[in-house]
Specification:
The chain is of the alpha+beta class. The chain folds into 3 domains: about 1-105, OB fold (Dihydrolipoamide Acetyltransferase, E2P), CATH 2.40.50.100; about 120-220 and about 250-270, no CATH class; about 270-475, 2-Layer Sandwich (Chloramphenicol Acetyltransferase), CATH 3.30.559.10. It has 8 helices and 20 strands. The strands form 5 sheets. Strands 10, 13, 16, 17, 18, 19 and 20 form a 7-stranded mixed sheet that branches.
Amino acid sequence: MTEFKVPELGENVTTGDVLRVLVNPGDTIARDQPVIELETEKATIEVPSSVAGVVKDIKVKPGDKVQVGAVILTVDENGAGGTKAAEQPKAEPAAGQGDQKVVSMPRPARTESAPAPRPAEPPRPPELPKPVATPPAPHGAGAAPPHRAGAMGAPAVGVPPPRADRGPAAPASPGVRRLAREIGVDVNEVVGTGPQGRISEEDVKEHARRVLTSVGPVAAPGAAPQRAPGAPAAVPLPDFTRWGEVERQPMSNIRRTTSMRLSHAWNAIPHVTQFDKADITGMEELRRKYREQVRQAGGDLTVTAMLVKVLAVAVKQFPQFNAALDLENDEIVYKKYVNVGIAVDTDRGLLVPVIRNADRKNLTLIAIEVHQLAERARERKLTLEEMSGGGITISNLGGIGGTYFTPIVNWPEVAILGVSRGIVESVWRNEKFEPRQLLPLSLSYDHRVIDGADAMRFLRWVVEAIEQPFLLSLLG
């Protein structure tokens, strides 16, 4: 009898929620046949079996939370001829789930974790919260406040003490330290629940949850939790049932992760948003003229696809917009590659697939890739690899409506471009008023890296590139 366990699900992914079990006791399964569907923090995936045979016992059920290494099922490899077992069709999904599409993971037998290794990414952030000296107020966006709360509500004043003055290093593995850096937690403030106080990934996540709910750092067992410095006190919700019926639903892994990342970005980054309008009358004429040609190639010539090309050229002219801030080493990391993220609205929340090397691709290739990635996002087929490595992000809400909005920077990036619905307005041109289609743009940026004047120059460059497409050919 052979046990099949939850394989590695990806870097820093240690748990998942069981959505569906795809086989039943007595089924004959083949190697690489999906046997269970899991929802992790970033994606929904089908886990393929690494063994073949007859299913004897299933150890999990929908709704269970399982960790990497947990037993999913047991298989009699002799009952179906071992590796010669014929692949069987998947079990019928539960009612209401028949149209659900998910990602098929690579075989877990590989030495590397699934999905495939990611390309080079921006250096990971420092172990937050760390005190950060307040920079002088740059021109163009007003004076900076005396101090600002750092990531996760930590104070951002002064200089951090040397390691020797902060006691011995926390007992945590490199993987746990990496997770702490990525979500903005100072691993030295986490209380470990393992042997001799060893810190696990779950300890780091629990600490982050406490801080984000304004409870503050995890206190020692039995001690009353204290609120994080600078964070507002937690306010309990009123009893809503006093006024009528309510329904409570648990947050999905993706929604929980989105909440944590956005809270960290909002607390850690001093946001500034600047606005402008671009005259897209000429661009719309070109888009309508060549849209069918691009469709025949398998893409869709949308405003978003065209803006990907515009930003890919813009960040070559303004490299500080394709950067990351490394507070641990007091450095700004300038990326030599150009990857543009596209925020996609899905039924599970906002996902951001990435167009890689956008500066090396023509508009038709970009339009094809944007179309395909958006479809994969909505069909739950995106992999973690396809959502990693972005340098700057576009969030286009024009298909829904609105005029302007203030998008939150997709940390550890330093800028994001928000796009609203194009509107026809009367514009004074050629000694008369003319109807022109204008596109509202909202640029949010990290004021620690980008000055207000440079942000306005960048936004004006983007506007001019939209209004004069020849500029892209000249410089791209």
